[in-house]
Amino acid sequence: MAPSCSPVNSLHVAVIGAGAAGLVAARELRRESHSVVVFDRGTEVGGLWVYTPQSEPDPLSLDPARTVVHSSVYDSLRTNLPRECMGYSDFPFVPRPEHDESRDPRRYPNHREVLAYLRDFARVQTRGDGSVRDRSGSCRARRSEVEDPIKKLRWGVQR
Fold first, then answer.
1. Helices (H), ranges, 32-138
2. What is the mean pLDDT of residues 43-63?
3. CA atoms of 40 and 44, how far apart (whole Å)
4. Per-residue pLDDT averaged across 124-153, rounded?
5. H-assigned helices in 75-135
6. Most buried of 36, 51, 75, 76, CB within 10 angstroms?
7. Which family does it belong to (predicted)?
């Protein structure tokens, strides 16, 4: 997508979630000259593509004190879409010539390959600028109590 020609005031923007949608949303906001920070509850980028062998001890979610597992990926998962349909238009999801056994060159790759693609995308887009952070899950986004007559609605990120 080409940068917008309309003048835009630069804003400080928080993107919640470092999965496929959050990463591309942050990229598009940067293209519009906004200052962006991506927050995620997990320990790494990738969102639902991050695999964990853990499972919830209470599959019916009856116990409010249960350990909540935020992943729907299982170990043998492969995509049901070809990689050509899953990539961003300006960052194709093509097999990478890496000497890493986790890379999967198949047209319908495994979840580790999708996660590696999202990590590659994040690394290229952020260039290590620290804009993907607070992976501890300790942040909360709340509507601000301060009324802003110009922007009307404000949100704050609290630790």
1. 83-86, 111-126
2. 87
3. 8
4. 65
5. 83-86, 111-126
6. 36
7. Belongs to the FMO family.
Domain ranges of the chain: 12-58+65-158
Q: What percent of the chain has a predicted confidence (pLDDT) above 90? A: 36
Residue 149 pLDDT exceeds 90: no
Structure tokens at 138: 């300790």
Q: What is the topology classification, in CATH, of domain 12-58+65-158?
A: FAD/NAD(P)-binding domain (3.50.50)
CA distance 51 to 102: 13
Total length of the chain: 159
Which tokens in the block code for residue 137?
């899950």
